[in-house]
């Protein structure tokens, strides 16, 4: 008990109080792991590994450095940038679909929608 009190820099009453607590902070649990030479965190990490659902295989295979776009993050600037790449022929429609993972239907909707505006501007 004396060694434990010295390690935690507290008295015996505080050590007993730790045993009575329902949960401990991560830094206190780390100290107990070091003192007892036992990895208490392994219990929780194994639990997470066992009970968390696996990601679908299609997400595991992607190794693209290009960010994944979602429908709600297509800003006006992104749309204009993509359409400018097509207009200046820097990239083909196929390249844009493959590199930026923008759905084909979305790209063609942008082309139809925003090409009308440019004609009247």
Automatic annotation (TrEMBL):
Entry-linked InterPro entries: Homeodomain-like_sf
Protein name: Transposase
């Amino acid at each position: 008990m004396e060694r434990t009190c010295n390690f935690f820099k507290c008295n015996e009453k505080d050590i007993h109080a730790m045993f009575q607590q329902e949960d401990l902070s991560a830094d206190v649990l780390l100290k107990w792991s070091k003192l007892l030479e036992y990895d208490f965190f392994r219990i929780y990490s194994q639990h997470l590994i066992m009970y968390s659902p696996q990601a679908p295989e299609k997400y595991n295979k992607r190794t693209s450095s290009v960010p994944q776009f979602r429908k709600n993050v297509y800003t006006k600037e992104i749309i204009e940038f993509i359409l400018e790449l097509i207009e200046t022929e820097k990239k083909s429609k196929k390249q844009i679909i493959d590199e930026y993972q923008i759905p084909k239907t979305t790209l063609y909707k942008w082309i139809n929608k925003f090409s009308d505006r440019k004609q009247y501007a």
